[in-house]
Design goal:
Layout (H helix, E strand, L loop, with lengths): L1 E7 L7 E7 L1 E2 L4 E7 L10 E8 L2 E9 L5 H12 L1 H10 L6 H10 L4 H52 L4 E2 H10 L6 H9 L1 E4 L4 E3 L12 H15 L1
Antiparallel strand pairs: 1-2, 3-4, 4-5, 5-6, 7-8, 8-9
Length: 236
């Protein structure tokens, strides 16, 4: 049965339009029509638009998959349709959202829409306040985690500096971070060696990886000059 439906404009959630659709009714008040076929041909997952009918007014109720077109859904819609205004009062009492098609239905019957419009405005304001508070709390958590992470990194770097000054080996990554912290320039070639070949380094020794058999040992002169410079700076 082709009927005029009050539904959302395509791609909009703030505008209601009238459109004709081929509706199949499950009972006097509840029906459905195909909105979009499933992209891989599984009809159970076709998108179906459910409609509610009160007298001659038919409007969009919601969107479900075909497999969700169950008797319980149609019974629930019929119950709402028989006492729509009371159902809207109950929705407001339970702090539930009232979709825009219900405003259009009230207008179609000449009912007072002001309470519903005021409720929707207040509901949005409450949701926006909740969202704002959630964002604030999330930002606080992230800031706290960032401070904790930075503190741990500082402590690890201080420990690396202490071990380096004691003549112990430290990881090449920590060595580079110490140089950068002390604003010691690193030659690009030495920096490449430290990132790709050197595993650990001390004032006088370095442990490096051999990437393949027969590869020459890395040139460590630049690394040891850098270690000497770092040692001089840390001693001050």
């Amino acid at each position: 049965m082709k009927l005029k439906i009050l539904r959302y404009a395509v791609g909009r959630d703030d505008r209601i339009v009238s459109a004709y659709e081929e509706v199949t009714f499950a009972n006097e008040h509840a029906g459905y029509y195909l909105a979009a076929k499933h992209e891989y041909g599984n009809s159970d997952w076709d998108e179906m638009h459910v409609v509610e009918r009160i007298g001659k007014v038919c409007f969009f109720y919601g969107s479900v998959s075909r497999m969700q077109l169950l008797p319980e859904l149609f019974d629930r819609i019929a119950k709402e349709a028989r006492h729509l205004q009371a159902a809207m009062q109950q929705r407001m009492k339970e702090n539930c959202w009232i979709p825009l098609p219900y405003i259009a239905v009230y207008e179609a019957f000449g009912w007072d829409t002001r309470p519903l419009i005021a409720y929707r405005t207040e509901f949005r304001q409450r949701q926006e306040a909740k969202d704002k508070e959630r964002r604030r709390q999330q930002e606080e958590r992230e800031a706290f985690q960032r401070r904790e992470r930075e503190h741990r990194e500082r402590m690890l770097l201080e420990d690396a500096a202490r071990r380096f000054m004691a003549g112990e080996m430290i990881e090449a990554e920590q060595f580079v971070k110490l140089c950068r912290r002390e604003r010691i320039a690193i030659h690009p070639r030495t920096c490449h060696q430290l990132h790709t070949r050197i595993l650990e380094i001390s004032k006088t020794q370095a442990r490096y990886r051999m990437n393949f058999k027969g590869q020459a040992a890395p040139q460590l002169e630049g690394c040891f000059k850098l270690a000497e410079r770092l040692s001089d700076v840390l001693e001050k």
